[in-house]
Amino acid sequence: MELTFVIEKVVLVSVIFLITLGIAAYSTLAERKIAGYIQGRVGPHRAGPFGVFQPLADGGKMFFKEEIIPSQSNPFLFIAAPCLALLTASIGSAVIPWGQDVTIGDRVIQLQVANINVGILYIFGVVSLGVYGIMIAGWSSNNKYSLMGSVRAASQNISYEIAMGLSLIALLMVTQTLSLREIAEQQNGFWQNGWFSWNFFCQPIGFLIFLVCSFAECNRTPFDLPESENELVAGYHTEYSGFKLGAFLFSEYINMFVSSAVMSTLYFGGYNFPFMNDLGLSANIIAVLGVLFLFAKIFFFIFFFMWIRWTVPRFRYDQLMNLGWKVLIPLSIANIVVTGIWITVKDLL
What residue spans of the chain are helical by DSSP H? Predict the structure, then answer.
């Protein structure tokens, strides 16, 4: 393995990790600002101009707060749980293609950490591992509210992972690949051969199912039953404080960022943007513009996550489970059948 290749990947991983942490940190400020606007108030505005230093103040507060470990808890698992949650949230971005290849001299640099041909399966594997951090946190805390919150989280994630997987089967029938880069390349530009090239236009139902399941997988309102304050105090992180609590909160925002990137890549062209092939610019400039457009799509979905949180009330738990098992799963199966019929008819014609 070439040393240059290793250096490129280390630099890319470092940049992506720092960007992820920065977006997660300032998502907390954006959420509070959006909440303030929706509720007719100002939001954070004292720590720096317009409150831009508020995430730094919050991070410093959590870092220096006293670390409390309950006497009846399992100390090793109690500490390992937030670390596992943060780790599984961070590694999900490894297979996301952030842009087209960049050429520097005689080297072609791929803006993707790992271009594997089963990228979607990797994403699902990472998502499945994420619930272990929550389960370990609930059990190791030796608190009945934490345990109930973690059990809710596990059953919720398992239920909605099924519908999410079925929604992607229809997309895979159309794209014929599990590679996120190949899926992004198939959506080149915006218009091809007299038809919209973005997968959203041929799989709108699949996207809607995937979007709803993403809310459930990220434990975001209206699917935040694992940490519903009016029932379970704070759910699975009731006993957590300081830096460990911050790790859990960070992992939620990182999951939201990665989910937005995956949705943008699968259904909205990823780094592709309209008329990109007609601008007459160099390939490197197009690649940079593609990265900017991808992040614009990601920020839109992050805003959408926050907008829904402050406008839609929380479901009851029976409503949440009924939606997953009795609505989304049958709807995703019907979407697979309709997609199969559509592909067959198109091939015959």
Answer: 3-38, 54-64, 75-90, 119-140, 144-175, 180-186, 204-217, 229-232, 242-267, 283-309, 317-322, 329-348
- Residue 57 CB coordination number (10 Å): 14
CB 244 within 8 A of CB 82: yes
Q: Can you tell me whether residue 191 is helix, strand or coil?
A: strand
pTM of the full structure: 0.90
Separation between Cα atoms, residue 304 and residue 298, nearest integer Å:
10
Cβ atoms of 233 and 174 closer than 8 Å: no
217/293 Cα distance (integer angstroms): 25
Q: How many Å apart are CA 62 and CA 67, to the nearest integer?
A: 9
Alpha-carbon span 280 to 286, nearest angstrom: 9
Question: Are 219 and 252 a contacting pair, CB within 8 Å?
Answer: yes
Neighbours of 87 (CB within 10 A): 16
Nearest to 146 by CA among 202, 73, 199, 83: 73
| C-alpha of 87 from chain center | 14
What gap in Å lies between CA 272 and CA 264, rounded to an integer? 10
User: Which helix (H) or strand (E) is 196 found in, with range?
Assistant: strand 195-196
Strand, coil or helix: what is 104? strand
As given in the structure block, the two tokens for residue 87 are 């780790």
**What CA–CA distance (Å, rounded) separates 132 from 69?**
19
Predicted confidence (pLDDT) per residue in 61-97, tens digit: 877 877 777 777 788 888 888 888 888 888 888 899 9
Residue the block writes with tokens 């089967």: 169
pLDDT at 37 over 90: no
Angle in degrees, CA 18, 293, 267, rounded to 5: 100
